[in-house]
Every structure is written in structure tokens, then in C-alpha cells.
């Protein structure tokens, strides 16, 4: 017994034409979306060390604090 293919019903009104909708541009908003997101991909070995986003943020804040402290120490001591 053959399977009966369902008939595809065209729901567009006859007065609509594809040309009425303008040019289709693939990836039109891709650059804007990329610029507006701040997703960072971690390498697998780094991801193992951090169980979640809170741990990553905590580590990065600590690193910033250490960097600011060490920078202020070298600037105030006058060493070059």
C-alpha cells in the first residue's frame, strides 16, 4: 500500500508576490548581534576549573584586584 503524501496548501493570497517583500539578505543582523553579546567560550581545561559563571567572575575580579594593587605598588615606589 502506498503512502499518501499530504497536499501542500499555499496559504498566501494570490495578490502577494515575493518581489513585494524586498531583497533577502542572509546574516543581515549577524554583526549587530555579535557586537551586542558578551558570550565568552572557555577552553575545555579552563572550563573544568570553574563550575559556573559565578566562579569565573569571582576569579576575574580577584585577578583585577591583584593587578591594580601590584600596579599601584610599582608606580608609587618610583622604580622603573
What does this structure look like?
With 80 residues, the chain is mainly α. The chain has a domain at 46-80. It has helices spanning 30-36, 44-49, 53-77. It is elongated and about 80 Å long. The model has no long low-confidence stretch (mean pLDDT 83).
Mean pLDDT: 83
Helix content: 40-55%
Oligomer state equals single chain
Describe the largest sheet. none
Radius of gyration: 28 Å
Could you say which overall geometry the principal axes of the C-alpha atoms support? elongated
Estimated share of beta-strand residues: under 5%
Point out poorly predicted stretches. none
- Give the ordered list of helices and strands: HHH
Structural class: mainly alpha
Distance between the termini: 88 Å
Count of discrete alpha- or pi-helical segments spanning 4 or more residues: 3
Q: Could you tell me the number of beta strands?
A: 0
Can you describe this structure in just a few lines?
This protein is an all-alpha fold. Helices cover 48% and strands 0% of the residues.
SSE topology sketch:
Layout (H helix, E strand, L loop, with lengths): L29 H7 L7 H6 L3 H25 L3
Record keyword descriptors for this entry.
about 80 residues; mainly alpha; 3 helices; elongated
Amino acid at each position: 500500500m502506498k503512502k499518501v503524501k499530504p497536499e501542500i496548501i499555499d496559504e498566501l493570497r494570490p495578490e502577494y508576490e515575493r518581489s513585494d517583500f524586498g531583497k533577502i539578505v542572509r546574516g543581515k543582523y549577524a554583526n549587530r548581534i555579535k557586537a551586542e553579546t558578551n558570550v565568552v567560550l572557555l577552553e575545555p581545561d579552563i572550563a573544568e576549573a570553574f563550575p559556573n559563571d559565578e566562579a569565573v567572575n569571582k576569579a576575574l575580579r580577584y585577578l583585577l584586584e591583584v593587578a591594580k594593587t601590584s600596579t599601584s605598588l610599582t608606580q608609587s615606589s618610583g622604580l622603573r
